[in-house]
Amino acid sequence: MRLRSAALLIAALTPLPLLLTAPTAQAAPAAAPYDFNGDGRTDLAIGAPGATVGGKAKAGAVSVVYGSADGPKSSTRTLLTQDTAAMPGAAEADDAFGSALASADLNTDGYADLLIGTPGEDGSDTNDGTVTIVWGSESGLSGARSLFSFFSTDYDRYGKSLAAGDFDNDGDVDVAVGSSGPIVLSLVAGPITKTGAHNGGSGSRNSSWSSTHGVTHLSSGDVTGDGHPRVVLHGRAGGTGDATTVLADLEIGNYTDWLQDLPAGYVSSVADIDKDGYADIAVGNDRETSADPAGALGGKVTVVYGGPGGRDTSRAPLVLTQDTAGVPGASEQGDRFGGGVCLGDVNGDGYADLAIGAPGENSAAGAVTVLYGSASGLTTKGSTSYTQNTAGVPGASENGDRFGERVTLTDHTGDRRADLSVSAPGENSGDGAVWSLRSTATGPTATGSTSFGPGTTGISTAGAPGYGTALNS
């Protein structure tokens, strides 16, 4: 196992007392992430950070489409902007509200809450950034507050990446926030409630990473099988700008003494592919080797298997490209295979499956590939590929659509199988659109698939909203 001690400085904050009465003896079971109304179906959050709001270009917006027995139902939705009633702040040009999304039942009331990153928000300085919490309820999302921000003079673009989970292993849900500048990662400690004061937190800086890029992406899962999630951090190396990816245990005070190097990439997803009790990590690197030495012709995805010590060094990582036997297509320059990745159990067999977006495929028309988990790990047997030209998928593949820029596998129908949702932020000259394909016992089906764009869910198509730039993570 390769452990890496980076030059990070940890600044711990003294917790302030909560201004709440003690919780009732019987708290509601915590809701699954993105189940905002507690009905057992995952809802779909869609970020459009380029959306014009009240005439303010690139202020940003988020559409939440609620799940139903038939999948995401665009007629039942909530539109969120910084001009929404009771939302902190106000929509301003270049705020980029909706650039990053995360979800957890932060206050354990039985309804998942939504975290929205607004990295362009001006605060104590330009592009300070902010994160908004929108609270779940029986009727859906309602009410909001800002997430605590400890180091506003020491970072920029706070909220450019997000993850939520019990990262310090104390029983409360925490939030990890990526930023650029001297401080690249903040940990906001739980419990996080509607009216309470903050409960402490910490921030870190990494002298070997590019402060300009900071922490660009976050994912998390129970890689070690001990019940509390580790965090996958993505950044860029200082000087070169090449991708760098590490696994961190935020329970450790100076968690940088436990950093484990992972295959370098720009996005990741974490879930148990082989059902051995240890979550595995899929890392996407969509760059060519000319742009990143860890990339590959047409892009690649590397699967690292988890174990009790973090990454399982007894198993070689699985490297996937479109030239891998059994993977549809062929590796071609600019395909961007691995631009989007998500793990989820599509067919209900208990093994996490992998959706891979290749938004550069066929002159950036885009494509998505689904591969399946098994007791021996991820397999290419039975893998399938989808584009807008697939029979039953609405629309048609067009240059620049970028179908597969973001992918998510989550159960919108309540049948315990993860449905495939795909975004194409370039659709209709930058309007963007989202597709959802129902899951079956044999994988996603295009039959009955749905698609909708920003206009359907109340977002202006002025400018280039980039609908689907962010999806459920």
TrEMBL record:
Q: Basic and acidic residues compositional bias: what residue ranges?
A: 399-419
Which InterPro entries does UniProt cross-reference here? Answer: FG-GAP, Int_alpha_beta-p, Integrin_alpha, Integrin_alpha_N
For bias type Low complexity, the affected ranges are 204-214, 439-461
Signal peptide, first to last residue: 1-27
What are the start and end residues of every segment in region (Disordered)?
196-231, 381-473
Q: Which Pfam families match?
A: FG-GAP
Q: What is this protein called?
A: Integrin-like protein
User: Bias category Polar residues: which stretches?
Assistant: 381-391
This protein's record includes keyword Repeat = yes
Q: Which UniProt keywords apply?
A: Glycoprotein, Hydrolase, Repeat, Signal
